[in-house]
Amino acid sequence: MKKDIHPEYRDVVFYDTSSDYKFMTKSTMTTGETIKWEDGNEYPLIKVEVSSASHPFYTGKKLFVDTAGRVEKFNKKYKKK
């Protein structure tokens, strides 16, 4: 395996904004935000809109997830004139 070509693999906290659920796992994703975790250490924070805590397939209930006006933005941009 070549040295210095792989991204850093580290502990990262993912925050599901739609269900207010946080979980820690390992990832190579980068971010400028950090969060203080339950163990007292600071970890990088990645915000996601959907995770297993909010996805209808895993929860068994329908949940409306607002994707920050993406549909409206698309319709506005590509609306027939």
From TrEMBL:
GO molecular function: structural constituent of ribosome
GO CC terms in record: ribonucleoprotein complex; ribosome
Keyword Translocase attributed: no
Record-level GO BP terms: translation
Key words, A-Z: Ribonucleoprotein, Ribosomal protein
Annotated family: Belongs to the bacterial ribosomal protein bL31 family. Type B subfamily.
Quaternary structure and interacting proteins, as annotated: Part of the 50S ribosomal subunit.
InterPro entries according to UniProt: Ribosomal_bL28/bL31-like_sf, Ribosomal_bL31, Ribosomal_bL31_B, Ribosomal_bL31_sf
The protein's name in its UniProt record: Large ribosomal subunit protein bL31B
Any one Pfam family match given in the protein's UniProt record, by short name: Ribosomal_L31
PROSITE patterns associated with the record: RIBOSOMAL_L31 (PS01143)
Superkingdom of the organism of origin: Bacteria
Species, as recorded: Fulvivirga imtechensis AK7
